[in-house]
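Sat 14:20. Reprocessing the chain from the morning session after the first attempt stalled halfway. Input below, unchanged.
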Amino acid sequence: MFFIDPHSGDNFFQRGHYYGAIDDHMRFAFFSKAALEFLLITNKRPDVIHCHDWQTGLLPVMLYEMYKFHGMENQRVCYTIHNFRHQGVCGPEPLWGTGLNREDYYFHWDRLQDNRHPTAINFMKGGIVYSNYVNTVSPHHAWEARFSDVGCGLQPTLEVHHVKFGGILNGIDYSVWNPEIDRYIPYHYTIETLADKELNKKALRERLLLRDDPEKPIVCYIGRLDDQKGVHLVHHAIYYSLGKGAQFVLLGSATEHHIGTWFWHEKQYLNNNPDCHLEIGFNEELSHLIYAGADIIVVPSNYEPCGLTQMIGLKYGNVPVVRGVGGLVNTVFDWDYDAYHPQSERNGFVFFQTDRQALESALDRALKLWKTDPEAFQRLRMQGMTYDNSWRIPGEKYQGVYDYIRVH
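Finished this time. Tokens:
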């Protein structure tokens, strides 16, 4: 691993935060340029350079418009897009800052010109156009990016380059997220010792001062509180779960001030409710205990490129209730209605609309199964635990991409 230490008066990397500066486009253009200069000067020639998101979108542009003429003609680029909402749209300054220069050449629909703003360049579009392979982080999200507004204006570019575009599902690290070895939970358990999950449930209730009632399942939400995550449905899930006789635990930090204010109000309102705890903020240790102690996890995202919480939840024996978008479709298969997996392979509950009734339809089915057929609910959560959402399969797929673009 190598680190870049800029000696520029612009102080690119000492800002106290990673993103959100007014000159982010120049900061990340500099980073991409510095990475290529490092490879050039040290004579390091990797077969494949793997870039991510808009921040590195100019790297393949510079590689194929500049550096290939200086001994880097054999390097190939795999470009992974995690979020199409943030594309690096800006003026021509990065062209001059990196030495690409020719505005008349790059301000072209087939190159860097933004599809919506003809006087702006688009880093992400440049990454798509110039890379040898482009992917997003789940197969269904790749389809959404091409054929729905999830592509955020890049649909025509993805269509032109669809031959080299696909989706590879993310994975999770089972050396960290694994109830068999998790250092943050008091009681380890496996499918064979799933009864020990109840001990973690008791520990979670003791820590959060929840009522110890064996007749109540624990529903949880873990993640950011923002519009992408369907925050209006997260809010509704709290009160719907409580109204159905369940307990609810939330762990999340808000990305917008008004959302933070909203949920702080709810926290204060529900503070003395023995069946509810809202933890506003980020606490990694607590997140592990919630996964280990909860029964049902809700993921009602408006859009979700991949989603990790439902994968982690499955590993810890939580039954996911998810909206049928992005990677959630590729990892959660409805207990009652999935048409592509036999009953023995289903692992959760899915809804598709963004209204409260849709969430209720799925969450109610999960709660009813827990209450009326405990054996079936136990079987469902065990089926979820058997899924391999590690990096093994995605790693093999990325290796296949690398091997392919090296010789094509």
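Residues 38 and 44 are 8 Å apart (CA to CA).
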